[in-house]
Amino acid sequence: MSKGSMRPTKRQKTPLQGGSAATPPAGGLRGAGAKKPKLKVAAASAKPRVSTQARPVKAKAAKPSLRPQKAPSQRAGVVQAARGLVGKAAAPATPRERRERYQLRQTLRVVGIVVASLAALALVAVVVLFSLRDSSVFSIDSVEVQPTGHVTQEDLQNLVKVPAGSTLLNVDTASIEAALKKDPWIASVEFERAFPHTLKITVHEQRVDALVVMSSGSIAWYLGGDGRWVQPTSVTAAEDQSVNDAALERAMAEGCLLITDVPATVAPEAGSAVTDASILAVQKYREGFSEDFASQVVSYSAPAEDSISCTLASGVEVLLGSPTDIATKQGFIEKIVEQSPGSLLFINVRVPTEKGVSFRAVQSDNVQGGTGVVSPDGWAGDDPSTAEGQEGEQADQGAEDGQGDGQGETLDQDETLDQAEGQEGSDEGSEEAPQE
Asked: Which CATH superfamily is domain 136-205 in?
């Protein structure tokens, strides 16, 4: 073999066994003096070897949790919602939202400016008021007040006293009103400031509720709507007229109620409240009756608290007694009036039961309307609690008039109001003169 054709033989790749390096075959090098080639060994991979043998794993003991455990589905939902919120960017405002926010800011700015302006104006007004309050710019130079039906111009001039130096801004209207109300006819007062120098006063007169005739006969008192005595007045009767008739004419002209026969113990004082039991009993009846029935009563007789009677516009006198069971008494009165229309003279409902109610009716072609005043003297204060007493009084009155006589009807234990209605045309019906 020639020297130039010598080539190294291909080395056999022998796997490393036991960690030793492979021995090159003999004669594998060209010549004895050739350099020994270096052995290149690949670096071991950083990746650890994975053993196929299973290794025992130590189980860790679970730590007890103090928090309540949630169901897996619930926990997953909460986690998903939390993840959705974290890092979620706010949606950009739309042009409409930006416009609305701008308009809101502008509105709030305008409101703030207006409030501030009003506060400034109020402050200025207060300063001006205090500076002009005692100034002669608005001094009171004239007072205008008009008289009423019972309060004259002279009375008003004596009552109205405006202190010197008063202005329309500092005038004490409370003291002027208190001075005017010393007159019991004055119920309320209104003031009007007519700048720069005039004070106008409007007086409202007390409403008259009743005309009360005293036991003396010719003296009567006005009773106000607030339950206070107002003022006395004299009642002048004509030659053929009784005091009660004259008082009734006065009461009707003034649109008020008439109360007669009050006891001598009643001593009114102008401006004082009513405290008398007999008049307070009348007031209880007026409040207890219905509005429609109360409007039919034109007068009351009040000699005592338990002897109250009233007279209807038709001329029928009703003995009421004490102010108890008022609604029941009204029911009996209305039923009797309905059963005997236009023929009644007297009704007694002191005892509001069908056994205690009595009445008298007239069956005659000569029936005439009454005066609407109380019955003749002696009836109002008497207590005709029995049918006999009523019949005797009515019969005597009928005999004096010369227009017939009759008898009344009493609802005793065997009679009712319905039975009494059927008896009005029988022999027990009465024919007696009307009471005028």
From this structure: membrane protein fhac (3.10.20.310)
